[in-house]
């Protein structure tokens, strides 16, 4: 059973994402918190009642391949049809093409819910979101008119075609070919692997966005163009025409997300349409990837939430062993044993911390898009771009850890597939890998988001944290204690940023060897900071007598996070500042 | 492909396990390092050539159940027959019953090799080892004469029957019944679950060791007796008689170790023989469990070694992306990218550190058994018993982490089952659970091994570490740097031990909430200490011009461990000393 955590999400939307600034934007002026509440509660019910029940059966059956066709597990087609009919794909997409135009901060919560319910199912809408993002930004008006409305409704789905057998994470080595035809279309030839929902029968058409090279393109990433390749050609009146020359030759046999078909696609002179300009494909793909990376970060929170709910419910029911404090000789529910409590508390705060971090990032995304002045938009974009690799990297690494702790809470039962905890452990494992591994996120964070502007954006974040520290210092004893931990962590972050800015140019291998520790340090700090902000908001609410149980729990989470998670930053700082020599000299 | 790391093992036997003290024992006076080398190299070849090739196919096929019978995957029967014929089961077992009487320190290395090759296969001999242990200590002469030689040879296999559906980790709730018959045997009735190799056809007979209660037994753990229940009754002449009334009613569908059948056994008035005295079953079972816990710790090292070898080999072959230092614009093998290096280095030192810790513990086991004076034996037993939960807890948690890092090194390929990295990730996950979860190990470490003697054994360990610190301080600059880190970690350990000794009685929930952080801190320290001792031995060898490449690598591992792993102890100390309030007050 899964219950969407809409209350925590709405708390974040109100107190973490900068809601008052968001609804002050003309684009969102029609929305208020009641709308967000209504949407998330209704979607939460849909996810719990329609999508979640297919999670286990989807894992057992898996997507099946036969002669170019993929059959989805029972129930997926119907669930997808309901999903589309109820308009859920369209939540945060532009109203011009039939979307509901909700803020990202609300859309992010919806994405998390769907992924908690069923990560395999949710991957289809997630990839469609990415295609909408890329087309909205770079597509021609004709392309938008032809494809966007159907993608926004979910009637058609989208895919991202980057990876090739010889080029995993390295887009410079992409060598699919695109040859311009007299009618202005391109013939696309090549093999793409790891294409999520590359072939399936839930949607009526699939719009592949494909990276390829024209014959005269320069080498490397500067010679990549982006093409739109529909599975079925679209006639002038919007009806579907012939099948395009793209074939699914197999799907992968994977550790997890087994109901999500991961296709090998063969493009054999398929008809493609250039998106934007030739040789500019990478920048369009980055728009799509950034949206997808953020969404994968949400998947990390989502799988953690699901694993936590399952483990907590088991721990409350499973009666085993008398308590260590001797208060009774009878066996008690294992949730009462101190270490089970520790495991569950860690699962809970990593989940809440990740959710709050994503909500904070989503707020910046809304401002980056619609803030009044270019300066405000630039500032918001810088913050949002700094946070994207943190959401992706930190939340997915934590998703794996939390899913693993969930197995541990179950003891031997956790290793039995029927219990369900093991599925989360298997499903979660792809998250720190796809849409760019944690190392790739870390290189992005260090190179593009920290070094490129000399640490300015990073230091601005540190200054924002200092402001929260000041508020904590003026608060309750608990707030003060959390503030002290936050301050220590923030100073570690600053010392690391300074170190990178002053040394990375001369010793790049040393610097990039510290990139993942930097990402984990920064993700830890930024999550802990959001929970500290939650604590302040919860204390204010408590003072007004509001929602005592929930607000007390938020304070407890912030405190546990500060004492048990934030304390890891010192070791990360030490690895970065003092560990490069031993890293570069160790024999492998 | 798997290559047994016999060189590192022999280094540990010579420099870490206290080899000169061990071969000075009369029991082992016939052995020397050349014998150990010959045995481990030959067994390493056997594991690599005969056992390892069945690991993947065993995972794919799994053990299969049909009407009470279990069929092993193809090749397992033949491999087991070879294993028995070549005498490998008997390596470290008593010569009185046909064993080869090798020291534990050598036997531990062999156990690790076999588990690296194929954990599912290795579980059968591992459980037989436990049965031999219990019978050797507590069995009657008749029982020993009837069963031991066949178990030592491996012709028959052994099992441990503890868990029941209503009693997972809580042996106080065992309620299988044992009713004494007029002929002195007992009728055993009850259901046991999670019985590793509880039913299979590789060995000719299976000797179940079963916990049950006689009708008048006191409640709780003081009323448990241990019984020997053969699958086939054994006639007076040693030949096999009728099948006993114990039936396998199903086997589990598991996340990993799929070729190892995990049985539900139904005892329906089966004939059992009391081992030792009535109501003393728990202490006999503890002997067996301690041997098994140590062996499971070795499984943690073993799966880490296997995952590391696979990831390293992939990283050396996989060419992807130009280096960050701009030294070439060509793509290079990913092992050259700083973060892949970091992942592999961490995998390597956690593996080497765990192996060294286990070798150190095995040395104490040898002394505990055969040292000349009772004082020496007691001291060795206290050290060995202190280290057992560390080997089990720390090495298995690390086994899971290393297997997960192994997936990460492979990128997207790691998520595809055919690559093989995912199997290690699945197989490893049982290790921190069975034979007592990490929390149970931690409670043992804190309660029985630390608090019971007021911290004396723990502080003795700290004093031994100080001696190593003194040697490091007198050594090379690298030795001195490692010594400083070791000293910081040792002091953290001491402060935590003092804290527990002074507070655990009054605030047991707070103390036991810090038990796993204490285990991880102590395991980290003790492993790092062994690698620091390795560094000293390697520097001495280097000074004599011996084996430059290997010894340089050992120094590099110790240094990386000190800079990148030991630095975690401070956060653990902080969780223990300052985190109890937030743990006990957090709302779940």
Automatic annotation (TrEMBL), chains A, B:
Its cofactor is FAD. GO terms for molecular function: flavin adenine dinucleotide binding; oxidoreductase activity, acting on the CH-CH group of donors. It catalyses: 3-(methylsulfanyl)propanoyl-CoA + oxidized [electron-transfer flavoprotein] + H(+) = 3-(methylsulfanyl)acryloyl-CoA + reduced [electron-transfer flavoprotein]. Keywords: FAD, Flavoprotein, Oxidoreductase. Its EC number is 1.3.99.41. Residues 160-268 form the Acyl-CoA oxidase/dehydrogenase middle domain. Residues 465-585 form the Acetyl-CoA dehydrogenase-like C-terminal domain. Residues 34-155 form the Acyl-CoA dehydrogenase/oxidase N-terminal domain. The keyword Protein transport does not apply. It is an enzyme of class 1 (oxidoreductase). Residues 279-445 form the Acyl-CoA dehydrogenase/oxidase C-terminal domain. The keyword Flavoprotein applies. Pfam families: Acyl-CoA_dh_1, Acyl-CoA_dh_C, Acyl-CoA_dh_M, Acyl-CoA_dh_N. InterPro entries: Acyl-CoA_dh-like_C_dom (IPR025878), Acyl-CoA_Oxase/DH_mid-dom (IPR006091), Acyl-CoA_Oxase/DH_mid-dom_sf (IPR046373), AcylCo_DH-like_C (IPR036250), AcylCo_DH/oxidase_C (IPR009075), AcylCoA_DH/ox_N (IPR013786), AcylCoA_DH/ox_N_sf (IPR037069), AcylCoA_DH/oxidase_NM_dom_sf (IPR009100). Involved in the assimilation of dimethylsulphoniopropionate (DMSP), an important compound in the fixation of carbon in marine phytoplankton, by mediating the conversion of 3-(methylthio)propanoyl-CoA (MMPA-CoA) to 3-(methylthio)acryloyl-CoA (MTA-CoA). PANTHER family: ACYL-COA DEHYDROGENASE, BROAD-SPECIFICITY LINEAR ACYL-COA DEHYDROGENASE FADE5. Belongs to the acyl-CoA dehydrogenase family. This is 3-methylmercaptopropionyl-CoA dehydrogenase. It comes from Roseovarius lutimaris.
